[in-house]
Amino acid sequence: MAHAIGFIEVFGMTTALVAADAGCKAANVTIEALDKNKPGNADSLPVPLLICVKFRGSVVDVEMAIEAAKRAANTVSGFVIAHIIPNCALDTEKLTKLNCFE
Asked: Are 34 and 12 in contact (CB under 8 A)?
């Protein structure tokens, strides 16, 4: 079975943790990584730090996790974008590890 990777970018660490928790409770997924990003226009954002939560699992589970994460993020400070890659290429897999919190 191919594994999917789902990404959701949210405003701030608190929102990221709430979204990650909701996604993991909604579906059989694991958290691949959390990435941080302070964009150039940070002062105009609701929270000046963007966090990308990466989920891994089956396509259906990742879809369910992303939907739950979106709903949860919207109860805190919102999300920027979400996307799912159904079957990652090997080179793309390597990129999911870049810029992670360690």
From this structure: no
Tell me the C-alpha distance between 64 and 61, whole Å.
5
Supply the pLDDT for residue 101. 57
Q: What is the DSSP string of the chain?
A: -PPEEEEEEEESHHHHHHHHHHHHHHSS-EEEEEEEE--TTGGGSSSS-EEEEEEEE-HHHHHHHHHHHHHHHHHHT-EEEEEEESS--HHHHHHTTTTB--
Identify the CATH assignment for 4-39+50-95 out of 3.50.50.60, 3.30.360.10, 3.30.70.1710, 3.30.70.360.
3.30.70.1710
Residue 99 pLDDT level (bands cut at 50, 70, 90) = low
Burial of 92 (0-12, 13-18, 19+ CB in 10 A): exposed
